């Protein structure tokens, strides 16, 4: 009896350890082509194609980026440079979502003149990343969605879950 219990316990542990990632951690939507500035995002998926875009010359490339990519990911090593006033028109001119990955200050330092990442305030909302979209038009509407490393109940979430959620939002936009 004791051997059967140990065997069942062992099999249960193996089954849990060998099970695939929960669906919420894996992006399985349409193929997305993502431009990124800075270090390449760590999240990998057969549904994601990344292409690095150099910071130099990016200001004049908003139209091309908007035509060729589904989104732009701005990575932490570029926050200070890309948050200067000379890049503000670039972010307003994009017609694709921009994800500020790992930004505790959200999107505001990048779209607000007179504010840099260093001088901007921490949002204090605990977000890990922000997706920003300037929909333009007569409304001049701007939207932002925040993504967290904790769920609404305070349970920890993996960075892969956050990336998957961001990619689902980008696909929806």
Jot down its keywords:
173 residues, alpha/beta, 6-stranded mixed beta sheet, 6 helices, globular, signal, Lipoprotein
> Can you tell me the residue ranges where pLDDT is under 50 for at least 5 consecutive residues?
4-24
Strand order of the largest sheet: 2-1-3-4-5-6
**Looking at the structure, what is the overall shape?**
globular
Query: Can you count the beta strands?
Result: 6
Q: So how many helices?
A: 6
- Give the SSE string: HEEHEHHEHEEH
What percentage of residues falls in helices of 4 or more residues?
25-40%
Query: What is the structural class?
Result: alpha/beta
Strand composition percent: 15-25%
Rg, alpha carbons: 20 Å
Q: Calculate the mean pLDDT score and round it.
A: 84
Major beta-sheet overview? 6 strands, mixed
Roughly how many Å apart are the termini?
57 Å
How many domain regions? 1
